[in-house]
Specification:
The structure holds 2 protein chains of 2 kinds. Chain A contains no helices and 11 strands. Chain A is an all-beta fold. The mean pLDDT of chain A is about 95. Helices cover about 0% and strands about 55% of the residues of chain B. In chain B, strands 2, 4, 5, 9, 10 and 11 form a 6-stranded mixed β-sheet that branches. Chain B has a 5-stranded antiparallel β-sheet with strand order 1-3-8-7-6, with no helix packed on it. In chain B, β6 and β7 form a beta hairpin. The termini of chain B are far apart. In chain B, about 35% of the residues are buried. Classes of the chains: A mainly beta, B mainly beta. At the A-B interface, β5 of A face β5 and β10 of B.
């Protein structure tokens, strides 16, 4: 059974803070993704990584960066948090080359005050 | 890039009735169309998908249809039950192989009433 975990379910940070969101998967998946989910806007892709140390910008990368030093871990970094980054952040993983199911983590609800 | 539009944004049906959710996509190169279900407070999970070489796919009470010419695809749920209440997201896949990614629609909140 695929397991995708995220470091925090809820997080409250102040404007200007550097924020790290961690995602870990245990199925040796090559592809990993970071989305943000906002009401009425669906799931929007921030960044994805198709292998270790590889990264690609998604649709809304501004204000974010990522790190993939190990295959199982994909980190999302908010260099200087702003209130418009208050959102639900979802991580997902997928086996490469399948275009198959993306397995999502439970999400981190981030509030920036 | 790909753009996926989804309608309606909310849908209320009585238990036992059918529900239909429609999506359109813009990139004619897209060839993979999954549907995800997200129950309240839970993570999205894949419920059914279709590839562009197939026009229809069924799995028990759910079915998906694809019209490549018109660039739209639909989710059909028959004999709805209270546990079908959730937010449903359609998606389309662009890119090839390694760098393929999904573009999601904005979601449909389905409520099945007793």
């Amino acid at each position: 059974d695929v397991k995708v975990t995220q470091s925090s379910r809820y997080l409250v940070k102040r404007t200007g803070e550097k924020v790290f969101l961690e995602c870990v998967q245990d199925m040796d998946h090559e592809n990993m993704f970071w989305y943000r989910q906002d009401p009425g806007l669906g799931l929007r892709l921030i960044y994805f990584s198709y292998d270790v140390k590889m990264k690609e910008k998604g649709d809304i990368p501004e204000g974010y960066s990522v790190s993939r030093e190990k295959k199982e871990r994909f980190s999302l970094i908010l260099e200087s948090a702003s209130t418009n980054q208050t959102s639900m952040y979802l991580c997902a993983s997928r086996r490469q080359g399948t275009r198959g199911e993306q397995y999502f983590g439970p999400g981190t609800r981030l509030t920036v005050t | 890039g790909e753009n996926v539009e989804q309608h309606p944004s909310t849908l209320s049906v009585q238990e036992g009735d059918s529900a239909v959710i429609k999506c359109t996509y813009s990139d004619s190169a897209s060839n993979y169309f999954p549907w995800y279900k997200q129950e309240l407070g839970k993570r999205p999970q894949l419920i059914i998908d279709i590839r562009s070489n197939v026009g229809e796919k069924k799995d028990q009470r759910i079915a998906v249809t694809l019209n490549k010419t018109a660039k739209h695809f639909s989710l059909h749920i028959t004999e709805t039950q209270p546990e079908d209440s959730a937010v449903y997201f359609c998606a389309a896949s662009e890119g090839t192989g390694t760098a393929s990614k999904l573009t999601f629609g904005t979601g449909t909140r389905l409520q099945v009433t007793l």
